[in-house]
Structures are given as structure tokens and as C-alpha cells.
Design goal:
The protein is an alpha/beta fold. The chain has two domains: 3-71 and 179-208, Periplasmic binding protein-like II (D-Maltodextrin-Binding Protein, domain 2, 3-Layer(aba) Sandwich), CATH 3.40.190; 75-174, D-Maltodextrin-Binding Protein, domain 2 (3-Layer(aba) Sandwich), CATH 3.40.190. It has six helices and twelve strands. The protein is elongated, with a radius of gyration of 19 Å.
């Protein structure tokens, strides 16, 4: 395998972007040049000249070949223990309107992302009035850890802070798991060796990722 391998990867595909996975791939295939664009735009990988992409399974076109990156994922609401001490925890997503929330928007001209939950098998979205809105997940996490409010995102994004006790989940009963991230690419009879190498590397690495971390 050799040549440039262009990938368009969602910014919240934490396990794929964590570092060790791609570092191991480049070490095993030194003649492959990885060109990774981290983007949350609605990318057409064929029209934009990418070899493959990584996105949540629910938004991948049906004519693509999709290979699971890891197991199921979920989105959760989190905050710092200090925030809970001052304001208490919401008992239902509808109560978020009375809390200080840290929201996300993809671009300045777009509406803030509506937080997604599920109750009795029915999905619903909640419009929260953010105290702070940003397009940067790292800032959202820093603010939440500092006690500025409740924020919302992929559980994997918060994992290190949950393990250390800097953040705690709220409203978990309304946050079910769903199909996670997939590496996807156009259906081709002859897969380029560089992309085949990445698919094989992913499948070999998946076993360590599929079980949810404690």
C-alpha cells in the first residue's frame, strides 16, 4: 500500500481520532500518507475527492460500504459536581430550560444544536437556552468542568473527565445507546490497496473498542 489516503472524519469520532489507532496504521504502512480533514460539514466524499469518511451510521448514504469503527455510542448531558451542589440535577430533559447550559452550534449563522433524548422508545429534541454557545467541544468541556453549566455531547468525548470525577452524567435514563461511527467509502469492485489496508487495520483493532469502557 502506498500513496495519499484522504479521509474526512467527524470531529466527535473520538476513538478513531484518539491518536494510537492512526499512529499504529502509519507505522505499519510507512508508504501511505494520511491526509485527515476533521470536519462536521455534510461532506460528499466522492465529489470532494476523499477516499473514505468516518461519520455516525445514521447519516451515511445507503449506497456506501460502511465498516463499524467501534460499538454503540450515546449522547449524554454532563456537568461538574460543583454545579450540582449549587443548582441540583434536572429530573427530566424538559427541566433543562431552568438550568445554565453550554451549547454547540456548527457555525455563527446557524441555530444551536437541539439536545436529543428518548423516552419510552420515542426520540425527542429539546431546545435549551445556552448560557454559552460555541463550535468547539474542547471549550464546552472546559466550561463544564469549571462548573459553568450542563453540556451535551458524545459520551466518549467526556470519558476522561467522567473517570476522574470532574464531570458526572445527568438524565441518563433518557440517553439510550445507538449505532456509532462507521468508516465508509463508495462501492468499488477493486478497492485501492491503501484503503484496503486501513479497513483491515480497523477490523483488527475493533476488538479492543467494542466493549464499553468502565
Amino acid at each position: 500500500p502506498r500513496g495519499r489516503l484522504r479521509l474526512a472524519v467527524s470531529s466527535i469520532a473520538e476513538r478513531f481520532l484518539a491518536g494510537p489507532f492512526l499512529a499504529a496504521f502509519t507505522a505499519a504502512h510507512p508508504d501511505v500518507e494520511l491526509d485527515v480533514t476533521v470536519t462536521d460539514d455534510d461532506v460528499d466524499i466522492v465529489a470532494d475527492g476523499y477516499d473514505a469518511g468516518v461519520r455516525l451510521g445514521e447519516v451515511i448514504e445507503q449506497d456506501m460500504i460502511a465498516v463499524p469503527v467501534a460499538g454503540d455510542e450515546r449522547q449524554i448531558a454532563v456537568c461538574a459536581p460543583s454545579y450540582l451542589e449549587r443548582h441540583g440535577a434536572p429530573s427530566h430533559p424538559a427541566h433543562l430550560a431552568a438550568h445554565r447550559c453550554i451549547g454547540w452550534r456548527p457555525a455563527p449563522g446557524s441555530a444551536p444544536y437541539r439536545w436529543e433524548f428518548s423516552e419510552e422508545g420515542k426520540d425527542f429534541r429539546v431546545t435549551v437556552p445556552p448560557t454559552v454557545t460555541t463550535n468547539n467541544m474542547a471549550l464546552m468541556i472546559k466550561l463544564a468542568v469549571a462548573g459553568a453549566g450542563i453540556t451535551f455531547g458524545m459520551e466518549e468525548s467526556f470519558r476522561p473527565h467522567l473517570v476522574r470525577g470532574e464531570l458526572v452524567p445527568v438524565l441518563e435514563a433518557y440517553s439510550p445507546y445507538f449505532a456509532g461511527f462507521y468508516l465508509y467509502y463508495p462501492s468499488r469492485r477493486n478497492l485501492a490497496p491503501k484503503l484496503r489496508a486501513l479497513v483491515d487495520h480497523l477490523q483488527a483493532s475493533r476488538a479492543a473498542w467494542t466493549a464499553p469502557k468502565p
